[in-house]
Design brief:
This protein is mostly helical. The chain contains three helices and two strands, in the order ααββα. Strands 1-2 form a two-stranded antiparallel sheet. The protein is elongated, with a radius of gyration of 26 Å.
Length: 145
């Protein structure tokens, strides 16, 4: 039995968040036990780099999800390169991830496309239903006489 991709991604994200929470707790204990500022700084440094991997994996899943949705709607997203403010290179995964600005920009583009499609469909529904209603009323009036 295969699990649908969206559910699998949600389960992955939840597992990564649980791991981050576990690491946060473990490093809170390490920070509490650190005696010197140097030990405290080392613990904070290790904590940062260990959790960064999981945060970037979550960001990569969200990026894939948004890119798939945009591709399904035939929307073009700017190319992933170092000059674009929408993309950044992941230090841990060696892949391109949407920045916060990029995520909100892609979401805005997707929302606008859905809105445009909904308006177009509503317009066509009005164009079709209006004459059919008038035709039905004329038919009912003629039938009643």
């Amino acid at each position: 039995m295969t699990i649908p991709l969206q559910i699998r991604e949600l389960l992955e994200i939840e597992a990564y968040r649980r791991t981050i929470k576990t690491l946060d707790h473990a490093y809170d204990v390490d920070l509490a036990n650190a005696c010197t500022p140097v030990e405290r700084e080392k613990a904070q440094y290790r904590h940062y780099w260990e959790t960064l991997l999981y945060y970037e994996q979550i960001a990569e899943i969200k990026t894939r999800r948004l890119v798939r949705k945009a591709a399904r709607l035939n929307l073009s997203i700017g190319p992933a390169d170092g000059d674009s403010p929408m993309w950044r290179k992941s230090s841990q995964l060696n892949s391109w991830i949407l920045t916060t600005v990029g995520c909100s920009e892609v979401q805005k583009i997707i929302r606008k496309e859905y809105k445009d499609r909904r308006e177009r469909d509503t317009t066509w529904a009005g164009v079709i239903i209006g004459p059919l209603t008038r035709l039905a009323s004329v038919w009912l009036v003629e039938r009643g006489q």
